[in-house]
Amino acid sequence: MNLQNQVIFITDADSSSGQVLTNCLARQGARFILNSVSNGTANREVLEKCKSAGSNVVLVNVDLCNRSAVLAMLERAAEQLGTVDVLIHNNNVVQSTRVETCDEALFLELLNVNAKSAFICTQVVGRQMMAKQRGRIVYVSSIHAEKPTGSSFAYSVSKGAVKMLNREAALKFGRYGVNVNAIELGAIEGDDALFRSEISTLYDAYQYKVPNAIVGNYDDLAQLVIYLCSDEARFVNGADIRLDGGFLLHYMDAKMRRPPSFQGEVL
């Protein structure tokens, strides 16, 4: 799939990941449906770059958990751009939650934002892709679909749900020329603060737990997304691709690759 003039729907265009993805995909000649809760305020600079690059953009603000609203929005957008060729679901809300004390409403809120939205978008966009016998769906998920955070169990549960949605969707839509894959992202800049925990040491000196002692960023994510959306990835379907630099392979802090100046405790 050549990305030139392909219609790409990004579910959270305001986020850091959404802005970097939009920037990188615009350079590939893509056109966009960008869901922006801020109505373009948070990503104004990116929108200007898209305009300068000649990328057509339809900016929307839709409740992704409302199936009829998503369907109506995509029908309107199709009149301007055509139907969606690539869905990138990158919703990623993290809040501190404990199994023993989490309020039910907060638990459901995180499941809705991170997982139900993925289901609704997959169902609506997937049917469009089935009809034209081609398409790409990419979930920007997390290593915490597999590894507990020690700080937000509801987040991990939501990403675990996306992990299985990815496999089920790939099994069905793959029969219609649609590839569905998940990127389990982790060990990127800022994760130590995002997943700070009182019971887990996973993110203590986390950069040195990456074998090469280099954490990732959203540019790394964008390069993998570009590949998964390309014709070169035609045989990649239903994959959970861990993009963490080898972070989850770490098992012994005493063997971390640390600089001589490092003063952290050996755990």
Automatic annotation (TrEMBL):
It comes from the Bacteria. One of its GO terms (molecular function) is oxidoreductase activity. Pfam families: adh_short_C2 (PF13561). It is an enzyme of class 1 (oxidoreductase). Its EC number is 1.1.1.-. Gene3D superfamilies: NAD(P)-binding Rossmann-like Domain. Keywords: Oxidoreductase. The keyword Oxidoreductase applies. InterPro entries: NAD(P)-bd_dom_sf, Sc_DH/Rdtase_CS, SDR_fam. Belongs to the short-chain dehydrogenases/reductases (SDR) family. This is SDR family NAD(P)-dependent oxidoreductase. It comes from Alicyclobacillus fodiniaquatilis.
